[in-house]
Amino acid sequence: MKTLFKQTLTASVLATLVAGSAFAAPTETPPAFIKKVADGLISRLKADHAKLQNNPALVKTIVRQNLDPYIDSPAFTRIVMGTYATNQYSSAAQRAQFEKNFRETLIENYGSAFAKFSNQTYTLRPYKASNSKNPVVTIDFNNKGEKIPVSFQLVDKGNQWKIRNINVSGIDLGLQFRNQFAANVKRNGGNIDKAIATFKPDAEAAVDKK
């Protein structure tokens, strides 16, 4: 009887946990989430602005602490690797290595850009709620009088939103990085290991294609 009771109790607890995780959803709205991320990053950049120019390591630390946790790195990785993210072209270990390298080079990319940050501001565009699994929130950054629209495509990770792709001035960075990686695979004769080891996503080159 005791064994049956324990089994029933265990099953009940597991069922509750599964149900809770299945129906968990972010408590923040998509624009509230993006505003939180942007405000946190910008306030940190402003606070340490005097130190940024001569301290690249600090810039990367700021990006790693204030932006990286909110990126859905596995999803971004799949977008960038494209067909090379399938078992036909790469192994799980190769994809994990790509994600690690890609994440670090993205931090370097954003770090270089944010090192030039002075006193830019932003405005959040009006958001229209939809039933899309990947809502998009757009911010207009004011860079010395020039408005730069940056759209963040989100994904529901159960208890919070995460960023799965970014669009800058109409340029889909995930797609551009995918093209860059595919070109790198060709340059390396189809050798995935070499392509992963030498791939450096270039955000500025991607945006300059417009």
Automatic annotation (TrEMBL):
InterPro entries: MlaC/ttg2D, Tgt2/MlaC_sf. Keywords: Signal. It holds the Pfam family MlaC. It comes from the Bacteria. Residues 1-24 form the signal peptide. PANTHER family: INTERMEMBRANE PHOSPHOLIPID TRANSPORT SYSTEM BINDING PROTEIN MLAC (PTHR36573). This is Toluene tolerance protein. It comes from Acinetobacter indicus CIP 110367.
